[in-house]
Amino acid sequence: MTIVKQKISQITVPTPYAVGDVHIYVMEGERLSIIDAGVKTDEAWAAFVYQLKQIGYEPKDIEQVVLTHHHPDHIGLIEYFPRLEEVVAHPQVDQWLKREPDFLQHYQNFFQALYHQAGVPEQYLRFLKQLRNPLGDVAKGNLTSMILEGDSLPGHEEWEVIATPGHAQSHLSFYREKDGALLGGDHLLEHISPNPLLEPPYQPGEERPKPMLQYRSSLKKLLSYDIEHVYPGHGKTFTNAAHLINRRLESQEKRATKVREIIGEAEMNIFQICACLFPNQYEKQFGLTMSETIGQLDYLEDIKAVKASVDDGVILYQNLEGSHL
Ligand SMILES: [Zn+2]
C-alpha cells in the first residue's frame, strides 16, 4: 500500500496591490497541487520558486492548480508552470482566464448601464475605461475541469468544495472534515473585511447578482461547518472562524445603519449615497466604493428598510417609515 502524503504548505508572494502579500498553498496528495497562483509578476514567481525549493519541490513538479476565485492576485502565475496539466476552478473563472472580447464588452455594457441608473455624473464615467483591464497585466489561460459545491478536489478526495460567492461570483472554499481545515481564499480574512464586488450577471440580460446578500449567506453557511483552522488568501492563518463570521456580519449591519442615517428624510441616488459614505475614498476607489454602497442598499432593500423607485432612469432610495434594523 502506498501512503499518500497530505501536507499543505503556505508560500507567500508579494503583489503590487494595496492588499499586500498573497498566499499560495502547496497541497500534496495523488497530485501535487497548488491552491491559487499569486500575481503575474517576476517578483512573485521568484519568491514562489525560492520557497517551493525550501519544501523540496520545483515548478515542474506542480501538476495541478486549483483557484479559489478569478481575481488577478490569485490566478497570476498559471502561465509560468512548465508541466501544468490541470487548472481547476468554478465554471465562472473560465471567462476571466479567456478574457474574450464579447465578455469584456458585456462587462463594460453592464457597468455603463448600472452607473447610469446610479446617477453617476458624466465626468466619473472615465472610470469605465479602466474596467476592461482594471489591474494591469492579468494571466490568461483556460480551465481543464470545473468544480462545484459538493464536489471533492481532484486528486485530494478528502477536500470538499463549498460555494462561497460574494467577494467574487466564482468564489469557492475547500474544507477537510477530519481536521476542520478550511482553505478560505478571500472569503474569510482576519485583518480586513473582503469587499463583495459587483459583477455582471453570468448571462447578459439576467438579473444582476447581489454580492452583499450572497456574502452574508456564504458567511452564515460556514457556521454549520466545524472549522478549526482557516488558511486564508491574505494575512495570518487563524482559528475561531465563527467569532470572526459574527463580527463581519455585525460590522456590515452597522454600516447599513449608517447608510440609513445618510438617507434620512431624503431621496437619494446611489452615487450621492456613495459620496457621503466614503467622502475621502470614492474618487480614488470608485469601483470598490460603489460596489460597497450598492451592496449595503441591496441589503437594506432586502430587509425592507429602504425602498427604491426609478425617476428618469435613475434609481432613488428612501427610508421606509417604521422600519428598523
Ligand atoms: Zn479576491
Automatic annotation (TrEMBL):
InterPro entries named in the record: Metallo-B-lactamas, RibonucZ/Hydroxyglut_hydro, Sec-metab_biosynth-thioest
Domain Metallo-beta-lactamase: 21-234
One GO MF term: hydrolase activity
Name recorded for this polypeptide: Hydrolase
Cytoplasm is among the record's keywords: no
Top-level taxon of the source organism: Bacteria
Residues that span the membrane, as ranges: none
Keywords, comma-separated and alphabetical: Hydrolase
Statement: the UniProt record of this protein carries the keyword RNA-binding: no
Pfam family, one: Lactamase_B
